[in-house]
Design a protein that fits this description.
mainly alpha
Length: 122
């Protein structure tokens, strides 16, 4: 993904108990605490935006979305983007992060919902 796809870094200090719980949660989902933390923060910020808790930005966004072609190419090649990359792309595209995570996970685990004998394009 492009450099912009990496997003901004934010360093946080969490109480020990909260961090340990985050570690356990991330481990249970075969994830990293930083990626899960980024996902949680992104979800909460989106909700706050939707609820009007965060003022609108005064500057217009004129940049292009994160490289969607690179994301789709990664998936097509079986490479799995990180949660951070998905959060950034979802934000740029104006879609829910969970949608992109589901696409990634379908590639990771295969589509178990495929009907027997079904092939691509049918």
């Amino acid at each position: 993904m492009s450099e912009r796809g990496k997003g901004k870094r934010l360093y946080l200090t969490l109480p020990n108990g909260i961090y340990e719980a985050l570690e356990r949660w991330a481990e249970s989902e075969d994830n990293k605490p930083a990626s899960l933390g980024a996902f949680i923060i992104e979800r909460e910020v989106r909700e706050a935006l939707e609820d009007g808790k965060i003022p609108e930005s005064k500057k217009k966004l004129t940049s292009t979305p994160t490289d969607l072609k690179a994301f789709l190419t990664q998936l097509a090649c079986g490479e799995l983007p990180t949660n951070g990359q998905l959060v950034t792309l979802a934000h740029d595209l104006g879609v829910e992060t969970e949608v992109l995570m589901e696409l990634r996970d379908r590639v990771r685990y295969g589509n178990s919902n495929k009907k027997e004998g079904q092939t691509n394009g049918t």
